[in-house]
Write a structure and sequence with these properties.
The structure is a homodimer. By secondary structure, the first copy, chain A, is α/β, with parallel strands linked by helices. Chain A is built from six helices and twelve strands. In chain A, the strands form two sheets. A nine-stranded mixed sheet of chain A has the order 2-1-3-6-4-5-7-12-11. In chain A, α4 links the parallel β4 and β5. The radius of gyration of chain A is 19 Å and the shape is globular. Chains A and B meet through α1 and α6 of A and α1 and α6 of B.
């Protein structure tokens, strides 16, 4: 692939995820922090309206608004914001972005998660580089979840989402702040090395890739009201194996609801606050070991 | 003191604190769970409007709206709600509450915190009873913070707030759910024993009482924009001693801001999401050992 000419760093795609918001505002005030010699860096608040209200969104989730087939009304703030961003940074925009780095946080125990939407060679090499420099990262492939085509970062041909947690929306965890900054800087270094063809030799890198399978919802009644929660044995245990029959939910009345699947899976995004309204208690993944030469 | 005739269990005083909301909805559907022989129990959503929108409040914080000197406009939803609740459950209301048990949660690492607004003998005896049965509880005195006169529970002559955390708003932690239920049931048992004069003999109980002193704000610029966060060494360390000169905040640029006070204090409510807008990073307390005979 060719040169990366413009990198977009986005925070506040969800207006209550403070780490990305404050990081972007810092880079806007001090652009030298994210400057590299071989590409332009633009730091941007994804959803400034929702940042003002400290809410995920105003009318609809901006990070599900970039698919032209989305069924949101055209008057929605986020639909208009998506059009503005597409006209500026999309492939046919005024200043197209070649790479988008989107900074997110979650109430789930994600640790430091890299979200890959595509498993092309460039993206896998980036993930390998980041895993090598930051062995604590977890690598999640969202391919199949829809984020390939409806997320803000889908505007660019190459992208990475850094997702950190557990973090209550509207707050900052200093450890997750520092981790986000470190991964971001290493990502910019990688892009610079790529452009200058100075990527150092490294040994083959092996990491676990958690590939999206499907979502599961909480127990609910016919009207959609919540009837239970994550089982205490499963709470905060993202990335750990879930076997058929394992306790998964606990109803408010104390009844255990086991996992009804037929194979071992690896849940992520367990108990994300913003997913209650989407009918998602957790995402199931399969775990694959990947070696990048 | 006399008989407790009516107990109000309130959840959803803040509309995004799910444990209290779902607990109250469960008690409304299954009132036998909170029934006792010697008093009437009423389970109530404090702020049903904010529950609908899954936000702390609609116009202003309901739990700061019960002081007639509050400066909110009379048209605010919560001011009207406060008047409705006062007319029903206040001392001159249709069905006055003798005891209010208010269920809250916080993004701070509160553990299981009992909040006492008053340090009268009845309330201290209740706290001792709960400490005896649930040694994991922490006891916090809010006297001096304003909650004595502006909170929903200030409608009743006697009250208790159960505050659990860390919990992201809009989510449920199953361990904190179970702890809330257990403390609530023990509280109802205590009130029943009090009414029936059947409180069992117990040894003197000693517990630590964390008494509110003052609040501290995050580093901010002149316009009020956040400039930093809780220092990594202090993050999640509620109830632990903070000594003069200890690292307290870390600016986004990496500068350490030490605690400038002159004596040892014990922070609580560190990094509560809803307090960012109030200009509160944490509450300082002094720790006293109390023995209840």
């Amino acid at each position: 692939m060719g040169t990366i000419n413009r990198v977009l760093i986005v925070g506040g795609t969800h207006g209550n995820e403070f780490i990305g918001i404050h990081a972007v505002q810092r880079y806007q005030a001090e652009p030298q922090l994210v400057r590299r010699s071989s590409f332009e860096t633009v730091a941007l608040l994804g959803n400034p309206g929702a940042v003002t209200t400290n809410t995920r969104y105003l009318d609809c989730d901006l990070n599900r608004s970039f698919n032209p087939q989305a069924h949101w009304p055209g008057s929605a703030y986020e639909v208009q914001r998506a059009a503005t961003l597409r006209n500026q940074f999309g492939p046919c925009g005024d200043t197209p972005a070649d790479f988008i780095l989107d900074l997110h946080s979650t109430t789930a125990n994600a640790g430091i998660m890299l979200i890959l939407d595509c498993l092309d060679g460039f993206t896998l090499s980036l993930a390998a580089y980041l895993s090598h420099h930051h062995p604590e990262v977890r690598v999640y492939s969202s391919a199949g979840s829809g984020r390939q085509s409806d997320s803000l970062r889908s505007l660019a041909p190459f992208r990475l989402c850094i997702e950190v947690g557990p973090l209550a929306h509207g707050t900052i965890n200093p450890h997750l702040w520092q981790a986000t900054e470190a991964i971001l800087q290493t990502t910019l270094d990688y892009l610079e090395h790529h452009n200058l063809d100075t990527l150092p030799q490294r040994p083959p890198i092996t990491f676990d890739l958690y590939q999206y399978l499907q979502t599961l919802d909480y127990p609910r009644d016919a009207a959609g009201h919540l009837l239970g929660m994550i089982h205490p044995h499963r709470h905060l245990r993202d990335y750990e194996p879930l076997e058929p029959g394992d306790a998964l939910f606990l109803t408010f009345g104390g009844e255990v609801v086991p996992y009804a699947g037929e194979s071992t899976v690896y849940p992520v995004f367990i108990n994300e606050a913003a997913y209650y309204e989407k009918g998602i208690a957790l995402c199931l993944t399969e775990k694959q070991q990947v070696t990048i030469i």
